[in-house]
Amino acid sequence: MAVKKTETKEKTAKTTKTTTKAKSTAKKPTAKKATAVKPVVAVEKKHVLYVASEAFPFAGTGGLGEVIGSLPRSINTSSDVEARIIIPLYQSLSAEDRAKLTFITNITVPVAWRNQYCGLFKYEHLGVTYYFIDNEYYFKRSGLYGYGDDGERFAFFSRAVLELMPYFDWRVDVLHAHDWQSALVPVYYKLYYMYKQGYENIKTVFTIHNIEYQGQFSPAILEDVFGISYKEYMSIEFNGCINLMKGAIDYSDYVSTVSPTYAEQIKTAEYAHGLEGILLKNAGKLRGILNGVDVDTYNPETNKALFVNYNKDSIGKKDEGKVELQKMLGLPVNKDVPIIAMITRLASHKGIDIVRRAMNDILKNDVQFIVLGTGEIDHEEYFKYIQNIYDNKVRSIISFNKDLAHKIYAGADIFLMPSKSEPCGLSQMMACRYGTIPVVRKTGGLKDSIIDCENGDTGIGFVFDNYNSDEMLCAIERAVNLYRDHKTKWNGLVTRAISTDFSWNKSAGVYLDFYREILA
Fold first, then answer.
1. What SS3 class is residue 339?
2. What are the pLDDT digits (tens) for 266-277?
């Protein structure tokens, strides 16, 4: 029994030894090298405050409101820059939107010798924070502009922007002011705020949307309304009066305008309305960046205002909307008759005078003509008269009607925009979005956005150079002839126009590079 026990122990030892050996000779899995995890560094956003007198959809009269209502949304898709907007709280703000406002604070704001109430409200809309400045005495009115105290109203607004900045939960890195209504922002900043605690190292940008409107006032109100000492008068004086735009150009760190061509043109006497010398002196800080349009709003595929929706693959449906437009306006219904449209302010610099000179020749063709807009009384009366003379061809709607504007953009075939000067122009881009082919003069943003189609195989519109009715008429006839005689080429032109990228994405990219450069 003893022997057997010993054998058992030996067998067990052998077995254990063998198993151990087997384990030791088995292939070990290769160990993975540890990878260092890079820490995620949060990008510190820079903050741009857009200061403007209007912004769609809350308040607007034209291009300025369109830009302010659209550009910041595209800016905010970036990872390193955030834009917010501050505008007056006008009477036009709907009850529905007022109910969504968040009250932040109220203060008093110095307006020369006065101290005026100022409320601050906040509202988040489509990814953008809006601030609203409240003062019913200045802003509870039926219109945005055109009052005898506009100088005081927007001096209050500009001063209020700066006084309210400590109440934001957000440091401002760039103050970006727009047009004369906010031109005092860079002036006040440099005179009274730049050395105050919390206001240090803010960059100022001033954008000229239309140099014709400069904010000119009597020198007598410099101290009493604007609260600026007569010692500083020469800094905002021009040709014997206060000129707020001139002051902003001089005081701002950077000046921009709304197209590259316009930036060059306003350095000349023909386009600068007297400020060419000021702009030449400041040429080193002047930039031209082409505007875009809100491609979601101006989208023929989804816009609920249209009679019929369509896209670049179904442009045949465009004629259905055209027929409905003819019915609505009481024009003879014929989808084969080209409709020429103008949606514009009826002002001379929009080319109305050369349209008037050529109107009888335009209407000799088998066309229909629609004009929508308001403006100078002489032009309004002229278009009413033309409708009476050519009742079966012309419709003149002397009104501002956005719903009808969309229907005309989509229902017309040709969009006429023969401007004498045009800082950027948005209507030609909107027309292209609907496949309505622009006829434009080669100036400002029209030159930068519309390429002539020559024989119909390239480009997206018809362009003429010199400001005269003969060249305009020639461009219109080129368009009408292509529409009638070369339908395949015309359809290709319509498809190219709809497909052209006029979104804010391109323009916002240029603005972002601009902000990064000035904040570097």
1. strand
2. 999 999 999 999
